[in-house]
Design brief:
mainly alpha; two-stranded antiparallel sheet; 12 strands; 42% helix; globular
């Protein structure tokens, strides 16, 4: 049933509500969270405040998980599950923290914190929005504010279920056409004083519920005629984007192509200058993102651990900020602007020094950290590393007063003496202050373009796929000419472009899982310039059959009280 047939008396109210414009300083305002349940369920204003509280919970310091490398919501989720486990991103930060995570040994351990974080976080979001949704049946909606907030609540609920499927569900090709049971489906708020038991739902049933939620959300957005005020809250475009992501999980290529195109209709691809200007503040193609305000995050901020100038990489060296897999880097076009964001052998001024990236005197075999400045002075590649870091700093951070990358700055000077920077170190993610405050993209238009292109390949629409690649790469590669690839070769080109454009943004492991392709990490070997840049302890091939098809096990904290879940069954 379409929205116009559901809501009575909504048009006049929506006319006024739709006049709200977007403030330029939307990220400087902290979402409200001080609201009791009675207010949240009784008034439109209460629903708004409650919804803003949910949005804040997507990026905050979680005290009960603080010790597990500072869990903070979406940014942590993206990096941990989406990148650390994958092929194209290496993090010595996590190798030092928990090597069993990097090697996937935690994936089937139901008592590990790693198996619990995603479950706890996603059902936390679902529990919050269920209270908002339950308060007002869709047929009783009579004002624009309520319609808009219920649409947002459904969008977030769908997003949370997509996240759960990414982690705990099988890939669609292993799901028996959606029949495999995977997660609990809470359609309404759970009453803690009642029966908390709930059976596992099938992957197909969960996806059907996600589609229904998003269909209703899109109708509600349309009826409300309202626009969001902050970029950390969802809107119609985000709902279409979540829809496209869900469709990918189902190999529903028609829906994926349509929804991805709809999602990005109000956005252009960010320019090359924007892309290399430091992922810390929203660019023109950022559709949904966290606030860049510190908001009491401190060392739990995303940038504190993952930004090239974050607190830990700069002040406690060898903690890491992530490095690109050198195999992926070598696949990038030589004129690709994104090459500027990684410290790799081609950055040295003297080609004779490229071999030093595989010299144990200058690179640690266990961390792949480059020794920029030894006891006897600078290493042969120290000047190049210094110059690249300083160039990046002057281009990105100096003019804005941000800290320098991979350095202990003194009196505002840029100084790499004594620092350790990994082979392939990234200069993509930046922090805007001492602790590491920054904005992290939850969704970009570039992702939607690449979903559209991938789906188009499966739909036999190669013209659209090529147009999409051209739209993106004309802003990334100097002198780009449209690809002549067709068939499987074109699909592989789209997938490669996805890996490059979205590097470090939380997609790699999820993509390889749904592509049904093994993760392959090539080891660093001393003296072998044809080897990779992954320490031997984290290198190797991770087959598609591992861990029940790359499924994280449901945590024991759920199964020990939810008796409807067969513990022996999920341990298989």
């Amino acid at each position: 049933m379409k929205a116009k047939n559901i809501f009575k008396g909504l048009a006049v109210v929506a006319l006024v509500a739709g006049m709200t414009s977007c403030s330029e300083n939307y990220l400087s305002t902290k979402p409200q969270t001080s609201l009791d349940d009675k207010d949240a369920v009784s008034t439109p204003e209460g629903k708004k405040a409650a919804l803003y509280g949910v949005c804040q919970s997507m990026y905050k310091q979680y005290s009960y998980l603080y010790d597990y490398r500072w869990f903070n919501g979406e940014p942590w989720f993206s990096m941990f599950y989406g990148e650390v486990l994958g092929q194209d991103y290496f993090s010595y930060f996590w190798t030092r923290s928990d090597q069993n995570v990097v090697n996937w040994n935690r994936m089937r351990n139901n008592t590990s914190t790693a198996s619990y974080v995603a479950w706890s976080y996603c059902y936390g979001l679902i529990g919050q929005v269920n209270r908002i949704i339950d308060a007002t049946p869709i047929e009783d909606v009579s004002d624009a504010e309520t319609a808009f907030r219920l649409a947002q609540a459904r969008t977030i609920r769908a997003h949370a279920y997509v996240r759960l499927l990414q982690v705990y569900a099988p890939r669609w090709s292993d799901s028996q056409n959606g029949a495999v049971k995977c997660i609990v489906l809470h359609k309404k708020a759970v009453d803690p004083s009642g029966d908390v038991n709930a059976p596992l739902a099938s992957m197909g049933d969960v996806l059907d519920f996600i589609y229904k939620d998003l269909d209703e959300a899109l109708d509600l957005y349309e009826a409300s005629k309202m626009s969001r005020f902050y970029e950390w809250e969802p809107d119609e475009d985000i709902a279409n984007g979540v829809y496209a992501r869900a469709a990918l999980l189902k190999d529903d290529w028609r829906t994926a192509q349509t929804k991805a195109k709809d999602a990005r209709k109000n956005y252009d691809m960010c320019t090359a200058d924007e892309y290399i200007a430091g992922f810390a503040e929203p660019a023109s193609d950022w559709m949904w993102c966290s606030t860049s305000a510190s908001a009491g995050m401190y060392f739990a901020a995303f940038g504190a651990s993952y930004a090239c100038n974050g607190a830990y990489p700069c002040r406690w060296q060898s903690i890491g900020a992530g490095a690109i897999n050198y195999d992926l880097y070598k696949k990038m076009d030589r004129n690709d602007i994104r090459r500027q964001l990684f410290f790799t052998p081609d950055k040295v001024s003297d080609p004779a020094n490229e071999a030093n990236f595989w010299n144990e005197d200058y690179v640690s075999p266990t961390s792949i950290d480059v020794n920029a400045w030894g006891e006897d002075g600078p290493s042969p590649i120290a000047a190049d590393l210094y110059n690249m870091g300083k160039s990046a700093y002057l281009r990105v951070g100096a003019v804005k007063g941000w800290p320098g990358p991979y350095t202990n700055p003194t009196a505002g000077a840029y100084n790499t003496k004594g620092t350790l920077i990994p082979f392939g170190a990234q200069f993509k993610f930046w922090a805007i202050d001492y602790y590491g405050s920054s904005s992290f993209p939850f969704m970009r238009a570039a992702e939607m373009l690449l979903i559209e292109a991938e789906a188009a390949c499966h739909n036999g629409d190669e013209t659209t796929a090529k147009e999409n690649l051209a739209e993106l790469n004309k802003k990334r590669i100097d002198g780009y000419t449209e690809t002549t690839a067709t068939g499987d070769a074109l699909l592989e080109e789209v997938k490669l472009n996805r890996r490059i454009e979205l590097w470090g943004e939380g997609f790699n492991w999820f993509d390889y899982k749904r592509w049904n392709e093994p993760v392959v990490r090539k080891a660093w070997v001393a003296g072998d310039t044809g080897s990779g840049n992954i320490p031997a302890g984290q290198a190797g091939t991770f087959d598609v059959s591992l861990n029940s098809g790359w499924r994280w096990i449901i945590p024991r904290k759920e199964t020990q009280y939810n008796t409807y879940i067969d513990q022996q069954e999920i341990m298989k």
